[in-house]
Amino acid sequence: MWRQGKPIRHSLLEARWPTAEEAARSRLFSPIKVGGVRLESRTWVPAMVPWRATEDGLVTPNVLQWYERFAAGRPGAIVVEATGIRDIASGPLLRIGHDRFIPGLHQLVETVRRASRGHTRLFIQIIDFLAVKRRPEKDKFFARFFALNDHHRAALVEATGDALWLAANESAIRRFLIDAPDDLLDSVLDERELESLRYGYRERVTDMDLPHIRELPEVLPGIFAAAAVRAREAGFDGVELHYAHAYTMASFLSAKNNRPDGYGGRRENRVRLPREVYRAVRERVGADYCVGVRFLGDEVITGGSHLEDAVYFGTEFARCGFDYLSVSKGGKFDDARQPKVGHAVYPYTGPSGYECMPTVWSDARGPFGRNVGLAATIRQAVRNAGCHTPIVTSGGIATFEQAEQILQSDEADIVAAARQSLADPDWFLKIKLGRGDEIRRCEFTNYCEGLDQMHKQVTCKLWDRVQLDEPGAAMSGDARRRLVAPRWRDTPEEEMVVED
Q: What is the per-residue pLDDT for 493?
């Protein structure tokens, strides 16, 4: 986990929880229309990847229990984790790239409806991603992946002063490079080769020499649209197109995208494919189905897109018809920490990853509501363009007063909370019932993010080792952690019946 230089340890925000009457009068618990969907409140659980699907991307009992637990807290909406649109292996992550995934996803929808008693709307985030390989052993890299050419021979001559490298046997050169020090490799390999050696090979949307990358603008609209149709058939209330962080669509939006085919370079070109994907989705699912987008207010990387780009993109997304805009920040491969050999690079380990999930170890600004200003600026631009598209904000939001102030000051229309909702899935309901003093408060140390980084089932340190003997409690593979928070047992049944 990356930390600021000379970080300051921030305390949690002081909280004054409202009475039930105060909560009922609040903006947070007022309804809002999102496209054709009515949310009972402006409370939102954004997409989180819990690592609970099968290796084939199918819904499991653990997946159902994960979302059932959030639904019991009755947020206005839950967004299901980033779900792959292609029918390709991607580990224990949900997929929606074939009709065989529909029955399990339908069961997920029904589970959430039942657990929330119909009070929570359910969206699913759909995503495309390119190949990312594990960091290789040095000898494996030079034996199997390194493509020797005349440039390397010439660079070796210059680095060593030995002209014999021009005619040397290829196997001899490979053996030499395996044992070569880093400074010599720096002068012989190009930037992408060094990255593949030290971080693992990673495809980019600018790799125009690869046919499948070159053809992305032709292929992706149809794949996204087919996935959205499956989402509708499964019963989801809407889809969220994943245009954020380190993945394919965000890479098209990035200022680092210099594709020469009309889909890179100027902002107008970089937003072209995201708009085409939206139009293809809309054409297939119809005008009455909710289609939202998650995108970045700032990439937080050198040479990347920043707020002025996001303002342009957000306005374009609103104009073309998205039903909501959900704003995030950072989370890029470009500045990620070097992984261990045998592991893949993780996009939340550098400065941009910190800005996506800020912790209590921070600079003077602190982590709380750190990214709200991005959403506020985008919202104002969208309103100035004559659009009333709801804006969802997130990032270190964990008290009623904080959320209510964001809404009352028109910085956003909906407040999302991932880590606080993981710490206490009932926290929105507890606020609504005037029982905020019972909330289990997130400590923002990113224990959960550390598990995600290791591709382990995500849990919260505040509850994953308590009541382990509870009958029926789902346990992690090593049987050391429970997988969902304990039920809020002290709630009288009559208080659980929230009026429609």
A: 53
